[in-house]
Amino acid sequence: MARFAAVLVAASLMPAATSAFAGDGAPKPFIPNLFDPAGQDVKPDTLPVKSIRFLTTDDFPPFHFALPDGTLAGFDIDLARAICSGLKMTCTIQARRFETLTSALAAGQGDAVIAALANTAANRAVLDFTAPYYTTPARFVTRLKSLVSDVTPEALSGHAVGVQAGTAHLAFLQAFYPTSIVTTYPDQDALRAALRDGKVETIFGDGIALSLWLNGTGSAGCCAFQGGPFTANRFFGNGVSMAVAKNNTRLRATLDYELEKLSQDGVYADLYLKYFPTGFY
Prior knowledge:
This protein has 281 residues and is of the alpha/beta class.
């Protein structure tokens, strides 16, 4: 099974994010809200398991990774623990090789996978998925002193936009920004270096990776997101969800219920800001 691909192709503003301005006029981070209370499952009267056994990997920071002492950490790990705490039940979280997760779930060696499995038609044939708890939006990033004030096709007409060669991001620019001067780079390191060093004023790419770069030392404080996130299921996939065994409807409904509750209670927002202080939405 392929890990959820950060392949972002089309433009659609994320409608389910919240935004506000702080008292000093500074914008607050967008907090994704992917859960629909009106369509949410009712909490089952009885839980399908006494303890949820989560399966994950330990090599996909900041979502799931191992600390030096071997303890699992990350956004997904904390989310799994919050789910079990909310349900008032114990849980275990075991790391395995990514390629073994689906077979382990099918063999009854775990109850749910929280490891960025792609919610594709092929995977849905053998697994059931919860509602998505994050997506992978595309974002524009510009230099702080850039004259670019907007990222619409009209605003970027005639402007150079950097993008990694051979990616869906390039395909997006070619389709929707035909009058921009698209400059390609062989990899993400070269693309970000070009922006940081002023060789290009604007780049387009995976919002999650860019948020981590902007929040780290590699960007040297050069740049910031410009405009909003771009999402569309047709191009960006169906988001990242937890997976359960096929037809395990009660466990899926239980996880969906608790995801919605964590969103309403603000727990999800706290975890999101903990791991993504420069939010990718």
